[in-house]
Fold these 3 entries.
Entry 1:
Amino acid sequence: QVQLVESGGGSVQAGGSLRLSCAASGRPFSSYDMAWFRQAPGKEREFVAASNWNGGMTYYADSVKGRFTISRDHTKNAVYLQMSSLKPEDTAIYYCTGRASQAYTMTHYDDPSTYTYWGQGTQVTVSS
C-alpha cells in the first residue's frame, strides 16, 4: 500500500507560480511511476504530467507543456509539480497518483484508470 499526500495548493494571480508537493509513504517509492491529474468543477479528471520510476522519462499534457515541470526526489519520497505562467484555466483540484512501474517507457500514462494510488487532492485557484 502507498499513501499519497499533496500540499502546496493555493490561490494565485494569472502569470504566477506554485509548486505542488506529493509525499509518499508505504512501499518503495522508487519503483513507482508517478503522475499528476487535475479536475475542474463539472469536468472530467484530466492528465497533467507523469514521470517514470527514476524521472528519466517525463510526459506532459499539451496544455501545460513548457509551463509545468514534474520532478521527484527519492531521498524524500516525494514528487513535485512546478507550475509557472499559470492561467485561470489551470484552476482545478490537483491529484497525485502512482502505479507500479512496468517498463522504463510509460504507456497509457494519461489514463487515470491505470493508476493504483491517489492522494486526496489540493486546490489550485488562478484568478485573472
Entry 2:
Amino acid sequence: QVQLVESGGGLVQAGGSVRLSCAASGRTFSSLTMGWFRQPPGKEREFIASISWSGGTTRYSDSVKGRSTISRDNRKYTVYLQMNSLQPEDTAVYYCASTTPYYRGSANSAIGYPYWGQGTQVTVSS
C-alpha cells in the first residue's frame, strides 16, 4: 500500500509558475513509476507527466511538454512537478499517482496507477 499526499497548489496568475510536490509513504518508493494527472473542471482526468523509478525516463503530454519538468528525490520519497508559463486552461485538480513496484506497462495511462493522492487544486487567473 502506498499513500500519496500532494501539496503546492493554489492561485497563480497567468504566466506564472507552480511547483507541486507529492510525498509518498513506504520504502518501495524507489521502485515505483510516478505520474501526475490533472482533471480540469467538467472534464476527464488526463495524464500530464511520468517518471520512471530510476528517474531516467520521463514522459510528458503535449499540453505541458516544454514548460514542465517532473523530477524525484528517492531519498525524500517525493516527486515534483514544476510547471511554468501557466495559462487559465491549466486550471485543474492535480493528482499524483504511483504504480506497483517495477511496473513495465504504459506510464501514460491511469490504468497502470493503483495508488492516488487526494489531489491539489491549481487555479490560474487571467
Entry 3:
Amino acid sequence: QVQLVESGGGLVQAGGPLRLSCAASGRSVSNYVMGWFRQAPGKEREFVAAISYSGADAHYADSVKGRFTMSRDNAKDTVDLQMNSLKPADTAVYYCAADYLLASVYIRMADKYDYWGRGTQVTVSS
C-alpha cells in the first residue's frame, strides 16, 4: 500500500506562486507514475500534471502549461508542483495520485490511478 499526503495549499493572490508537495510512504514510489489532479466545487476532478518514473518526462494540462512545473525526488519519495502566475480559475482541491508502471496513454485519466491523497485546498483570490 502507498499512502500519499499533500501539503502546501493555502490562500494566494492572483498572479502569485504556490508550491505543493506530496510525500509518499508505505513503499517506494520510484516505479510509480505520479500525478496531480484538482477538483473545483461542482466540477469533475481534472488532470493537472503527471511525471514519469525517472522524472525525465512531465505532462501538463493545457490550462496550466507554462505556469506549473512538476518535479520528483525518488530518493525522498516526494513530488512537487510549483504553481506560478496563479489565477482564480486555479482554485480547487489538489490531489496527488500514484500508479505502478502506468502506461503513458493513461496518465491523464484519474480512474487509472490506484492511490490518492486526501487533497489540499488552493484558493486564489482576485
